[in-house]
Specification:
This protein is α/β, with parallel strands linked by helices. It has 8 helices and 9 strands. The chain is globular, with a radius of gyration of 19 Å.
Length: about 240
């Protein structure tokens, strides 16, 4: 690989959200009742050719965790440009999904041992609408914008839920990993969970520089390259409002 091509490959690399978010809910007797898991990787381990109904790796995660009446809930993180990789070699796609799901479940159990639950919980929430930019499809596809603009939303909603020192942010889109990390970096909460595809849906959202690099994700942008900046700023504004 030449120096120039190596630099090009390096530029394409993204910062990936490697955090696994876990909320544990215990019963009065101290036994675990439920886990809410937040992880940023598309449940697409089975590939596009698979036509069977499946919960992919989150299904294997839930199956692994759901013993003795425990409930496991999976939430999509900022996963627009991220897919899951098996921690070990596998023979087929279902084995890959199983490896990813059970590997994630083991991490959840490891994390849960460090979680100290409390009898009293502070809950707050705020929901706000924000305007989306006019419909602007990716580059050459924009000539078809007039065909779809009446079917795409002109606004969207963000929802924030505060649970003690943790914050859940529901984003109504397929949010890119770097955009999700920017929101987390702007959060003043000890733990911040970014949940994609929440409450509504208006397409993919990538940072503007990633949008300009091209690929599948920008083609699924329906409101142009500035929408990530708008969403991040709105989330930051709402975080400050809820915190104060």
């Amino acid at each position: 690989m030449t120096r120039s091509s190596a630099e090009a490959e390096e530029k394409k690399k993204t910062n990936v959200d490697e955090e696994i978010g876990v909320i544990k809910i215990d019963k009065a007797d101290g036994q675990t009742k439920a886990y809410i898991v937040n992880f940023a990787a598309h449940p697409t381990s089975l590939g596009s050719k698979n036509r069977q109904i499946s919960a992919d790796y989150p299904g294997y995660m839930a199956e692994y965790l759901e013993e003795d009446g425990v409930i496991a809930i999976f939430t999509n993180g900022a996963l627009a440009d991220v897919t899951a990789k098996s921690p070990s070699p596998c023979k087929d796609k279902f084995e890959k999904a199983k490896n990813v799901g059970e590997g994630l479940a083991e991490k959840v159990l490891e994390i849960s041992k460090k979680i100290e639950t409390k009898e009293e919980v502070r809950l707050n929430a705020v929901t706000a609408a924000f305007d989306l930019p006019p419909v602007k499809l990716y580059k050459k596809f924009n000539i078809f914008g007039f065909l779809v603009k009446n079917y795409l939303p002109s606004d969207a909603i963000l929802q924030l839920i505060e649970i003690n020192d943790a914050l859940i942010i529901g984003a109504p889109c397929d949010l890119g990993s770097e955009a999700g990390l920017e929101i987390k970096n702007k959060s003043s909460y000890k733990h911040t969970f970014v949940v994609s595809q929440a409450n509504d849906y208006f397409g993919y959202v990538m940072l503007e520089r990633r949008y300009e690099e091209g690929g599948y994700e920008p083609k699924m942008h329906f409101h142009g390259p500035k929408v990530a900046e708008i969403l991040i700023n709105k989330a930051s504004e709402m975080i400050n409002y809820l915190k104060n």
